[in-house]
Amino acid sequence: MHIVLVLVVDSSTPAVTAALVEVADHGVVMRAQRQAVDAKAHGELLAPAVHAVLGEIGAGPRDLDAVVAGLGPGPFTGLRVGLVTAASMGQTLDIPTYGVCSLDALGRAAGAGRILAATDARRKEVYWAAYDGGARITEPDVDLPGSVAERVAALGVTGAVGEGAHKYADVLGLPVRDEPMYPPAAALAELAAERIRAKGPSERLTPLYLRRPDAVAAAGRKPVLR
Question: What's a BP term from Gene Ontology annotated to this protein (predicted)?
Fold first, then answer.
């Protein structure tokens, strides 16, 4: 039986996640995990979390066989921390990187039924997608909660998961499950497991921003005041 050690990272939400999993022929086994919730400290928290999970099992970066990263959707600044970390480690260690839509991890972990997975997109909006039995049935999108409520009602969605669903539960009008609140590392790994087992080629980690960054460069120079 062939077993590979995989680092999983996700910074698409206020939860900064790093985990180590073993991917074998029979499934995915969690070895170590760290998660801290702080929307303003992704850059400060992720590297120590990676170091901590490696140390917990007595492993080093050179023991890794692959890296899995949550692609979002998520706010620009936080999301790129995880993707840059994953891409840099993949290049430095010469190991493949694989990307997974972070909403898909929420949807997979939610399990049976037609479920809305929603995360907080700020600006009074949510990133969202709908799932049936863990399989995505809509493309990831960003909308006002009221618009999402109308769209998922037409799809027969009966429940919701995720931080965004909790925040706007009154508008969405759906029963919201306590968990998962944030994209689970185990689900991210499971969604990439087939590619890992097949030793698929390394993937470019393209972020799902779905809209322009909050901060943009000025269109032109302002005249100097005298």
Answer: tRNA threonylcarbamoyladenosine modification
